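Honest question from a wet-lab person: if I give you the sequences of every part of a complex, can you actually get the arrangement of the whole thing, not just the pieces? Trying it with mine:
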Amino acid sequence: MRNRKGLAVLMRTPMRGAANRRQLLAATSPLPRSNGASSSGGFQDGDDSCKVSLTDVKEWMRQSISISPDKFESLDANLEEFSKGYLSLSVERRRELLFALARDYDVNRTRVRELMQQYLKIEFSRIEEGNGVLDELLLAACFRMERNLRDALKPMYSVFFERLNAHPGGLKILAVLRADLLLVMEKENMPSLRALDSYLKEKLITWLSPATLQLHQITWDDPASLLEKIVAYEAVHPIRSLHDLRRRLSIGRRCFGYFHPAIPGEPLIFIEVALLKGVAKAIQEVLWDDPPILEEEATCALFYSISSTQPGLSCINLGKFLIKRVIELVRRDIPNIVVFATLSPIPGYRKWLLSKLASQLKLANMEENNIKLSETCSSSTFKERLLLPDEERSICDSAKGLFEGKSAIEILEKLLTSLNNEWTRSDGLLGTLKSPLMRLCARYLLNEKKRGKALDPVANFHLQNGATLENINWMADPSEKGIIQSFGIMVNYVYRLEGIEENAQSYFSTGYITASWSVLQYLEKPKEADDAE
Amino acid sequence: MRNRKGLAVLMRTPMRGAANRRQLLAATSPLPRSNGASSSGGFQDGDDSCKVSLTDVKEWMRQSISISPDKFESLDANLEEFSKGYLSLSVERRRELLFALARDYDVNRTRVRELMQQYLKIEFSRIEEGNGVLDELLLAACFRMERNLRDALKPMYSVFFERLNAHPGGLKILAVLRADLLLVMEKENMPSLRALDSYLKEKLITWLSPATLQLHQITWDDPASLLEKIVAYEAVHPIRSLHDLRRRLSIGRRCFGYFHPAIPGEPLIFIEVALLKGVAKAIQEVLWDDPPILEEEATCALFYSISSTQPGLSCINLGKFLIKRVIELVRRDIPNIVVFATLSPIPGYRKWLLSKLASQLKLANMEENNIKLSETCSSSTFKERLLLPDEERSICDSAKGLFEGKSAIEILEKLLTSLNNEWTRSDGLLGTLKSPLMRLCARYLLNEKKRGKALDPVANFHLQNGATLENINWMADPSEKGIIQSFGIMVNYVYRLEGIEENAQSYFSTGYITASWSVLQYLEKPKEADDAE
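Yes, you can. This is the full assembly:
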């Protein structure tokens, strides 16, 4: 009895996952600065004072690139030393190493130019003519030169990547390397780093081909070492306790991971699915429906969380294939499921809206202080009417006494950035802000684009996979994280099997977003019909 | 009791494996001509009359190459149709399709030339100078053009290979395609086919990186569908019955396979290992040591069979990594094992010796009929003394009455090519032939090279992996297959861990073959010491 209680306490003990990207990175690539001794090697910690110097690691890298391929033991030893050494370097040293890799192991341009000059001397006209013996010889020479050119155009770091990929544990190191590279590029976006990243990304895409990935249903019977990773990497709705974890793996729930043979024991990406009677419009319905409904009564598979575990594999769309395979699998196993939908966060909404508000305030400020004449043309390219007249009025009304003389935009900005999100604690403010926040959210999702694609990364992900933007749900995630990302609003994207390819295709070619009427009506020219939601 | 007997009979019922390459190919890529309906599709059989026409399959191929990547369902459907369709084509139609692939989806040379001319206009000197903003821009342009050039230099069939690789079941189709290509190239070795093969091979090497392959010990507990494949693919010592199969998977034996996630349920290559008290010098000791010795008494792990299941993966050295990993695994699991050796066939010996004998006979014949003067210079570049005087004498003696007046070479040739290998049934002849056949075998293995490497493919395989040529064993495989390959002779290659890399390295760079004294002495200048073996 006592043990049981002990277990129950354990099951409910709060757990902390490494929820954000930086933390994940630290977990996969231990830095001496942050966590003492490196977990993957026996090296001493310390920044510049650690036993492994940048020079050593660079030398192992050089050896790994230049060594003859038949010296496989030395090659293996060098790759091993490099891997351990790299992981024990500080952020700054890694940055230096990446710069050296990009700069010193680039394309050999002298050789490329020589080969090109030779190639251009070929009398192509003679090949294209036909079928004599000479043409055969010429064609053979042509193939040979093209092959040499392909080789010469490969940067020298290509060999390094290929060798690491063939080495046990090397794929993981490549993922860490790319994660570091992406961090460096956030600050220093140099052409040579971009070229390094683009080359590495291209390689990773072919090595992580969906046919190589294994779909595995993660259950409570899986090893603790794997389950622990699920807790650590869950990036959408943090797992609070063992009890919460078990809930997500038992009746009415599914968790599927994509595994690669070269990175055993942890999924590259995993998805959590809830089997429900209908499309859930709030995350509480998913996380806390205790007891769950009977699986045979479920009609909807709701994808409520997708987490990728390797920041270094960003922009390699593993999720698309994962969703596709999970839909196939669930359809086959549970024929009563007819709707496949998500309940998704809108990670970019708040940031976008606050920057919009800020720029409007700035413009208003400039207008007031300097150029009065622009008052007449209030709908210029710079200044826009973010709020409807009704919304402005009720915002000003709701805040009377507090922000006297301020504009609606100013009040809205102050409310949304208030300490501890005070506005969420007042029913009055919630009622007032619902209408503008929902309408602007629809606008953000449907109209705000970057290079023709939805600005919001989660929206872009599901839309490019062929989903429909189905519902926008008010206070669907009232957790602190939910408020901070998107004022608690969440979205249902629906995967309708018959429309997937068409949607993906039209989104891809024209940026057109397929959305339900309930979402589209937010963008209709307003008369007085803003309560329709 | 009756059931038990029934089972025993079943266990000993002879089985037929698809032992040779052609049979394997037919098994992996069912041709309507050979086995009726295709096993992988619902197509009707028949050669040109089958429902799927070459035109259809070509069209699916064209679509698979040209379709936009976001139309993933159509792409999948096309790849699926192509795969089924290709497998249902006759040999001749497949040949036509491969020619079309090589010719019509080659490099776009017009585009390559345009890009090269642009590239050569870049002022490289300005990039190399240093660190101004302009150089950055120039460098960025340079990277962009190099990337475009790399893309342009890819033949158009590259996309096809990549898409097939990403498609479930596609890797297997690529292996079948290459197997067919290799067969076509045996007769028609055109530059465009060679270029296609070399490109495909390069791709397969990166996709079949050893880190992607999973080592699995195959046991009697594995599914019958897997064990059936072991029987079918065992290429060295055919498995005769279920009893024989179980023997190879139970105490004192190991069988390890390399599996790729994209080709589930069958190994790409597998190796059979016997745990013995010493290095076995005859295959009978391995196949029929009933009861086996206790594993804890074993000191030698003998690799007695390596079979690759995909002829389309030839020249992709999976065996090297397999042996390396198996050695590591066995060392860890059974510390009493200290010797790692093989008992290997010599597949090219008989063919080589018979062609040597034939050319010597032809030379002798020419000499006799035409130019008498050459009798004085019997050791010219063309004519050589294959047999030692002693050997000649005893061959002539042993055959007296049968081949009166014939030369020793002529008698040897007649004996070795006699119907049903009659010579193996006479102790006298066995005694006489042992000495020359063993000596010439050592010469074949040590001295006969092709491009600096051992002519014998099995020798080349183990030598490049770093093994030592340890023993040549007389009548080590007296089966019909053993006699036909190498007059019953087999070789022990030994993997000495401390010498592996050095051996591999010197063999790679100079072609030097590390051999034991017992083998080397066969090549010593003869006095009268030829019985030393």
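Two things worth pointing out. The first strand of chain A starts at residue 214 and ends at 217. Residues 21 and 270 of chain A are 15 Å apart (CA to CA).
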